[in-house]
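[audit] Reproducing an earlier prediction to check determinism. Same input, same settings, fresh worker. If the tokens differ from the archived copy the diff job will pick it up downstream; this log only records the rerun itself.
[audit] input (315 residues):
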Amino acid sequence: MYPSMFWTVGLDLRAGCDGPIHFAAWLTKATAKSGTGDRIAGVHVIEETSWDYILRSRDLWGADHQWSDLVEPAALLAASREAMATQLDRTGTREHFSRLHVLHDTTAETGLCKLASETPGSGLVIGRRAPTGKDRFIRLGRAARRILRRLPSPVIVTPPDLQAEDIGNGPIVVAADCSDDSIAACKFGQQLARRLGTKLCLIHVVPMPRVWVQDVMLQPFAGVHEQMRSDGATRIDEWLKQHQIEVDERVVEVGDVTACVEHLAHGRKTPLIVCGSRQSGPLTRVFVGSVASELAASARCSVAVVPPDVAETAD
């Protein structure tokens, strides 16, 4: 039996934003089969701007207005809890949530990051802005983008319109680039695959160079391509051995990293892609590397982004 995780699920009460709910409910059911059973709690954050707008409207209406009682702070919190319960009842997932909680904070990302930071061994499940297959200019959205920037814990980003039937039954796919930032992602993927009772598939993509030097250009393209793949396979095998990471399948590709990872994940019907992130120091994180952010913003399945500082607790 492997240790379970506690997940805080950020609930967006707007229409078409049930993806995190469906994925979290699937996660609890799937891990329960192996005897661990990850636990989930739903959280909705009322942002300061929304809170102020509603309370100012009450002041403008006056105490005698017919709606004045509905925008009292206590009534606002109660209405939010009722809306959360309605959302879970509508999706048929309420039984999987251990509790529901409403927060009032400056922004949604601030409230969710605080919860994750205060709960060791926990993670976040949130939705992005762009629906599946839609190439929007704003794909992650403000809250998801800023949470990934802070990355207080492992964060799973789902398409907002993800349905239970969209979640694949294939292996967990972890993308690794032979850097230290990938260690935690691989070990997180190992643990999760074990809790789910499924396999772990690792993909290492050798980026296609954008500028070819003259001597390389003179070689047959297929030969260069195969040499790059062979060199990549040697590097990733040595890296896996060095860090004692075991996988059920190892795939090496050459090309665009994001496209190769998404193609493999789609072909393997994976429920989740796992990747690492980079940070510049203990206090300031550089925005998640382009691969992680692109995957989280565009993948058809959910994507877990794992901070490197959880490596020590990933075993």
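[audit] rerun output stored. Observation attached for the diff report: The radius of gyration is 22 Å.
[audit] end
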